[in-house]
Every structure is written in structure tokens, then in C-alpha cells.
Amino acid sequence: MNQKKHIAHAVKYGLILAILRALLDISIKFFDANATLFNLSAIIGLVLEFIVVFYAIKVFQLKVKEITVKDAVRIGVIMTMITSVLLFLSINFYHPEYAQNKLIELTKRVQPDQLEVVLANIKQANANPNYFSNFATTLVKFIMIGAVIGLISGLIISTNQTKKA
């Protein structure tokens, strides 16, 4: 299978996924969602990622007629890597204190006795921002998410291929 087809397809759908995830993140901030909805946005984003990656893999399978699990994992990883870059920029450079404010709000509600510890951690993180480490962590997390989603999607689609054959 031509690897360039995989990459071009994954980049196209990865950019779509990245824009959707960034829009979700920005809209949560723009509409000033409460702390609970802010925390749920991660789950909503994960569901969105699964749907878009599965759809992209299914579209690719329809184009090439046959897809392996390895192809599906590769597409999932590339897509989520692209998403991680845009999401990292969105989180760290568009209203970066928003997540900190929601963390403080949630801590006050759920564990008020831990508020001083949380405030100290936020102060330390703001004093020494480590963007490289944060980016690396985000990238690795999204690579793992993409691999798992690609694996599940590839297994589902390849199982359906063998049933039809």
C-alpha cells in the first residue's frame, strides 16, 4: 500500500479533527462554561476524536478497498498528532488562565482544604512555564489515544472486511 496515500489522508482528516477540537476548546472558554462542563469537555473531545478517526479510517478503507489494522493505527496516530499540536496552542496561548480558574473553582467546591496547595502549584507553574515538557506530554498522550482509537477502529473495520469476503 502506498504510504503517501495514508499520510495525505490522515493529514486531511487530522486537520479537520484539530479544528473541531480547537473549536470545542475555544467555545467552552468563550461561553465560560462551568467547571463541570469544562471537565466534561475532555470526554466530549475524546468521543469526537473517536468518531472522526473512525470515520476517516472507514473512508480510507472504502477508497482502497482493503485496510489493515496497521494502516488504521497509522492513520489514527497521525491524525491525533496533528490535533495535539493545535490543541496545545489553543490551551496555552488562547486564554491560558481559564483552566487554572476552573481548577480553582472546582477545588473550592469539592476540596476546599486543598485550595492553598492548588494555588501554590499554579503559582509555581506560572513562574516556570515549561512549554517543551507540556508539549511533549500532550503529544505522547495524543499519540497513545490515536493508537488506541486506530487499533479499535482497525479491528472493527477489518473484522467487517473478513465477514464480507
Produce a short descriptive summary.
With 165 residues, the chain is an all-alpha fold.
Which segments are poorly predicted (pLDDT under 50) over 5 or more consecutive residues? none
Instruction: State the domain count.
Output: 1
Radius of gyration: 19 Å
Q: In DSSP terms, counting alpha (H) and pi (I) runs of 4 or more, how many helices?
A: 6
| Amino- and carboxy-terminal Cα gap | 19 Å
Going by helix content, strand content and strand pairing, the class is mainly alpha
> Proportion of β residues?
under 5%
* Sheet having the most strands: none
Give the SSE order as H and E letters.
HHHHHH
Query: How much is the average pLDDT?
Result: 85
Strand element count: 0
- What percent of the residues sit in helical stretches (DSSP H or I)? over 70%
Shape category: elongated
Describe this structure in words.
87% of the residues lie in helices and 0% in strands. The protein has 165 residues and is mostly helical. It has one domain. The relative contact order is 0.16.
Distinctive features:
mainly alpha, 165 residues, 0% strand
Which helices and strands occur, and which strands form pairs?
Elements (H helix, E strand, L loop, with lengths): L2 H28 L4 H30 L4 H25 L3 H14 L4 H13 L3 H34 L1
